[in-house]
Amino acid sequence: MAVTKTFHYNSIDSTGRKSKGTVEAANESAAMHMLKQRGEVPLELTAAGQGLNMDLKIPGLGNRTKLKDLAVFARQFATMTSSGMSLLRSLSILEEQTSAPALKTAVGEVRTDVAGGVSLSSAMGKHDKQFPRLMVAMIRAGEAGGMIDRALEQVADSLEKDAALRGKIKSALTYPAIVLSFTFILIAGVLIFIVPIFEAMFKSLGGELPGITQFLVDTSHNMWWIGPLFLIVTIGGSTVFRRRLRQSQDLRLRYDQFKLKMPVFGVLFRKLAMSRFSRNLGLLLNVGVPVMQALSVVGETTGNEVINAAMKDVQAAVREGQPMSSALRHHKIFPEMVTQMIEVGEESGQISQMLDKVADFYDREVDSAAESLTASIEPIMVLVMGAVVGGMVICLYLPMFTIYQNIQSN
Can you tell me whether residue 44 is helix, strand or coil? Predict the structure, then answer.
């Protein structure tokens, strides 16, 4: 009598309805086959009791893989499979040459699972911190359609473009970050080294210090605890905020809404979100992922909770028979150009091609916005730094006028 195992699953059917439960099967491949016979697409499939063992066995998987490392991995994987190399051999080579420790461990476990008869998408789906859900969904669709090499190539293209976009955003934000850091260092230097010199001079000349100058002197006296406290509060507050951001969907929604409304950066964040939305949705539909499942995946892979919330409403509208373009118009984050292009794609049956064109357009828009941001923020940061340093200099020289008046009166 064959030994069966219990598998926990999360799945989605053709209407986009999600479900979870358990299934008894001889192995993971058999469990997936049983779910597909029911008309369900498995999103997650884990053997009962395996999750805790994985956490204990692989403590090094706490950090997510860098996008650049993942893009290189995907491109190499796509090149090997398209040349006719088997999955096992490709994974074995990738495991040897991957330098990122967490990704290397994950690839090794994926290779072991695939050798044991588990599908590539299910094996990769166990490592959600290394392999994004978009990547797993596209590979799963490629497996179902017998075109896994094409799916891997499109995954590689998507990750490389996403990495390039992130690189441009980081470049745009590098200058203000450096200027702000230098400004804080300059303020600390003035308070620690310059203010005590002026204080000694003021004491020798006599007279009462103005309130703002006295504040600088008192701050200088207490820098031994103000400086460390500032660092602790900044680092601790940032850590707590990021942790809360990961745990609370409502906080992520409010934070993303705030980012989109920011005066200088909001336009850039909006264009970046539109680029990712269009690119990811087009890729998923192009490899044959069902519309309802594609909308679910794309909402969680754009990195914007506003779009994720919109996708849930769009799913409900599409389930009721409304066109996707009509449902998108109810959400202000989607520009009219995007909804018009999607509408044309729906009418012509080329929605994935239209989404690719929208993504290309917004890629160029992100490039332009990043360059404009860098050009406009440089003079702003110079003015800010000049105002801070100039204000401190004025505060230090204010007592001179009082001292001069005292000398004249005497």
Answer: strand
Of 387, 371, 391, the C-alpha closest to 175 is 371
Tokens 């690839």 — which residue?
107
User: Residue 106 class from Cβ within 10 Å (0-12 exposed, 13-18 middle, 19+ buried)?
Assistant: buried
More confident residue, 179 or 254: 254
Higher pLDDT: 148 or 251? It is 251
Separation between Cα atoms, residue 27 and residue 47, nearest integer Å: 9
Query: What is the distance between the alpha carbons of residues 10 and 363, in angstroms, rounded to a whole number?
Result: 34
> Are 253 and 309 in contact, with CB atoms under 8 Å apart?
yes
C-alpha angle with apex 120: 116 to 122, nearest 5 degrees?
90
For 78, residues 6+ apart whose C-beta sits below 8 A from its C-beta are 149, 152, 153, 155, 156
d(CA 126, CA 105): 12
Give the residue from 391, 376, 380, 374 showing the smallest Cα distance to 186.
391
Say if residue 157's pLDDT is above 60.
yes
- From residue 322, give the alpha-carbon distance in Å to each of 20, 281, 327, 344: 27, 18, 7, 15
Residue ranges with strand state E in 155-214? none
Residue 63 main-chain phi, psi, to 5 deg: -100, 140
Residue 61 has pLDDT above 70, yes or no: no
Angle formed at CA 275 by CA 273 and CA 277, multiple of 5 degrees = 65
Q: Look at phi and psi of residue 119 and say left if phi exceeds 0, alpha if psi is from -120 to 50, else beta.
A: beta
- Look at residue 24 and give its three-state secondary structure: strand
182: tokens are 């230098």
- For residues 179 and 184, what is the distance between their CA atoms, to the nearest angstrom? 9
pLDDT band, residue 285 (cuts 50/70/90): confident
> CA-CA distances (angstroms) from residue 263 to 3, 220, 336?
62, 34, 21
**pLDDT band of 237, cuts 50, 70, 90:** very high
Q: Which long-range contacts (CB under 8 A, 24 or more apart) does 113-117 make?
A: 113/28, 114/87, 114/88, 115/88, 116/27, 117/27, 117/28, 117/29
**pTM for this structure?**
0.65
